[in-house]
Amino acid sequence: MSRIKILSEHLANQIAAGEVIERPASVVKELLENSIDAGASQIQIEIEGSGTRLIKVIDDGMGMDSDDALLCLERHATSKLGGSTNDSNRLSAIRSLGFRGEAIPSIGSVSKITITSRTENDPLGTRLEVRYGKVLKIHEIGCNKGTIVEVKDLFGNLPVRKKFLKSSRTELHHIEEIIKNYCLANNRLGITYTVNSNIIWDIPAATDTLEDRVKMFYAKNSSEPLIPIQNLSRSSKLDNDITVEGFLLSPEQSFATSTKLRLFVNGRAVKDRMMAHAVTEGLSGYLMKGRSAAGVLFVTLPHEEVDVNVHPTKQEIRFQQPNNIHQRIVSGVRSAMESFQKQSKHSIFGSDTNWNDRKAEQVSHPNKETDSANSHTLWDRSPDSVKTEPTESVVYPPFDKDKDFSPARYNEPTATAEPTAPFQQTEMPADFVPESLKPIGQFMDLYLLCEARRGEENFLVVIDQHAVHERILFEKLKKQFNSKQMESQNLLFPKMLELTPESAEILEKNSEEIRAFGIFVEEFGGDNFIIKAVPSVISHLDPEEILTGILTQFSCSDYNHGEGRKRQDATRLDDILASMACKAAIKAGHNLNPVEMQQLLKLMQESKAFTHCPHGRPVVRMFSAAEIKKWFRRT
Ligand SMILES: Nc1ncnc2c1ncn2[C@@H]1O[C@H](COP(=O)(O)OP(=O)(O)OP(=O)(O)O)[C@@H](O)[C@H]1O
Ligand SMILES: [Mg+2]
Fold it and tell me: Running DSSP on this structure, what letter comes out for residue 255?
């Protein structure tokens, strides 16, 4: 006799429910998806208990006629995979949120479910009552167009599953998270949400923008602006149909967990590590270590290019071209941060953004052509800085990737630039001060205090001098590095050193990149090497320390291959440049004279980015006069 038995439909549904319906929030998710797929513009969600007593979802969608209302209880019954007659084509371009035909029978097998529904064309609706998978009653009923699904006594027939549910607060939190996702993904949708008859949200239909909804859920009490990620330019043919949009919270509002970043693909809330990684990479240099981005990100692409049939809960997806999507997200986030920098510059410097253009000619600068961030030399002359006397400043010829840069083949560096004269100026003309931002002093030899004026409003601006200078130098170094024009300084006394075989190997393996950083090293026989030039920006430091520091950074990278390797390379390069910038920046405890203060502001204004140090710490805070008045109870 055969040992293998076909499971009863009821048992099969319960098994399917085990995957799809994990907790009350899963029911809310499935019912909401059905209502949205039915074209609803207004959805009402009522919860009693923590969802186990009652989950009721009312929508004004297209509804079901009596045949469909009965059919929807059948497993694998769906109205959503129409179109092609070819089964495999049907799954290749899913446009609706549901497609498995499993949710209603699964919910029905573990609860007492009542479905009331009417289509526009039917004078009367249909009401079905089902108890743990068994249809008890079906009859006609007068009702509004749309569908009402009531789910009572969830897991009443599965006490073990019920026991695993968490506290009421946790279950309600999961439900809220689900509702927020659909509110964000469908910002024209009206949603009313009540728990035990208390109205939690009553969000009207068709009035909100996405920004309104993001603010409502994320930043209700915050005055910090949201950072918009806009539709990317559609330059490449390949990317024609991919758009990346959304809003990020400012890096200060980032969180220690990654759950505050909501990701959507073609309107579906998804969990995807690659997408989350891309957002973090786009924010590199703005997010502190251990912090995660917060906000919402929508990727829209042709339905054929994404597989949503990966997991029963439909929250996992597979992209046909994941690298392409990754790159699009990274560049979308980066350009959003660039605009954020411009906006921040405007709020700190006001409309006085032409300061440099207008005033530059009036300043007698000894080397007008030099990049303004070169003026780090002003601070390098601090009494505590140990300086290896430079002989000349050299700019290496453009870095050629295909060239063999093994240490033995290094060419002698040639001086291609005039020696950098030390910054001579001690006085800045009075009108060099930007009208809208005036330095007023320094606090603890660390924070630069300034007064800003925006129209009628005055602000106290506090700037972390080390962090802001670090960022300015980082941007400058990055620009030099990317254009393969890293400035090097020949050492008057080339430094001999002995490297361990491991370090020598790292040097040899990475000679190309190390040279690109402006460090010029030659073999000197055996384990001996000679350092001939170092990056100009840190030429005041001990050359041996510079080289060993960089070798340590190269040795730390156990990165993988392919795209992953490229990504990690980029992070490593940034880390090396950031550590150079950190070493070269004005230190905390450095007393700035008025000229230096002004000069720092000028560098800040000219820099592409300055709001955060390269490690993501914020560098500027603004306090309005109104806020300060409040501290002192002035009205
Ligand atoms: N609120 C609703 N309004 C109109 N029709 C509905 C509604 N809910 C369910 N239906 C109909 O019932 C069918 C079955 O719903 P069910 O949720 O079980 O499957 P599905 O949505 O097709 O796929 P999935 O299991 O992936 O959710 C749907 O295809 C749809 O035709
Ligand atoms: Mg469904």
Answer: B
Residue 235 CB-half CA count within 13 A: 4
| Per-residue pLDDT tens digits for 354-409 | 444 444 444 333 343 344 444 433 444 333 333 333 334 444 333 333 333 333 33
d(CA 475, CA 483): 12
- Measured CA to CA, the distance from residue 537 to residue 268 in angstroms comes to 48
The ligand placed nearest to the CA atom of residue 314 is 1
Quote the ligand 2 centre to 307 CA distance (angstroms).
Answer: 17
Q: What is the pLDDT of residues 419-465, one digit of tens each?
A: 333 223 334 444 444 567 889 999 999 999 999 887 788 899 999 99
The CATH number of domain 9-208, selected from 3.30.565.10, 2.60.40.3080, 3.40.50.2000, 3.30.390.50: 3.30.565.10
Instruction: Ligand 1 pocket test: pick from 30, 45, 60, 104 the residue with the most ligand atoms within 8 Å of its Cβ.
Output: 104
Nearest to 466 by CA among 479, 447, 482: 447
| pLDDT tens-place string over residues 466-488 | 999 999 999 999 999 999 889 99
Question: Is residue 411 pLDDT above 50, yes or no?
Answer: no
Listed in order, the ranges of the chain carrying CATH 3.30.230.10 are 215-344
Higher pLDDT, 525 or 223: 525
Q: Hey, what CATH topology would domain 350-625 get? A: formyl-coa transferase, domain 3 (3.30.1540)
Residue nearest to atom 12 of ligand 1 (CA): 72
Query: Given ligand 1 and candidates 19, 28, 35, 37, which is best to mutate, with the most ligand atoms within 8 Å of its CB?
Result: 37
CATH entry, 215-344, from 3.40.50.10330, 3.20.20.70, 3.30.230.10, 3.90.870.40: 3.30.230.10
Nearest CA to ligand 1 atom 31: 79
Q: State the pairing for strand pair 261-265/268-270.
A: antiparallel
Report whether residue 420 contacts ligand 1, using a CB cutoff of 6 Å: no
pLDDT at 89: 67
Give the ligand whose atoms come closest to the C-alpha of residue 76.
1
More confident residue, 100 or 41: 41
- State if residue 147 touches ligand 1 by the CB under 6 angstroms criterion: yes
Measured between alpha carbons, how far is 517 from 180 in angstroms, rounded to an integer?
47
| CB-ligand 1 contact for 107 (6 Å cutoff) | no
CB atoms within 10 A of CB 345: 20
192 vs 160, which has greater pLDDT? Answer: 192
CA end-to-end span of the chain: 92
User: CA-CA distance, 615 to 572, in Å (whole number)?
Assistant: 13
- Supply the pTM of this predicted model: 0.79
pLDDT (tens digit, 9 = 90+) per residue, 197-237?
999 999 999 888 888 899 888 877 777 789 999 866 554 55
Does residue 58 line the site of ligand 1, with CB under 6 A? no
The burial of 31, by beta-carbon neighbours within 10 Å (0-12 exposed, 13-18 middle, 19 or more buried), is given as buried
Question: What stretch(es) of the chain map to CATH 3.30.565.10?
Answer: 9-208
Please name the residue whose Cα sits nearest to atom 1 of ligand 1.
35
Those residues whose beta carbon sits under 5 angstroms from the ion ligand 2 are: 34, 98, 103
* 105 CA to centre of ligand 1 in angstroms: 10
Question: For the residues 57-84, what does the mean pLDDT come to?
Answer: 87
Could you give the 3-state DSSP secondary structure of residue 246?
A: strand
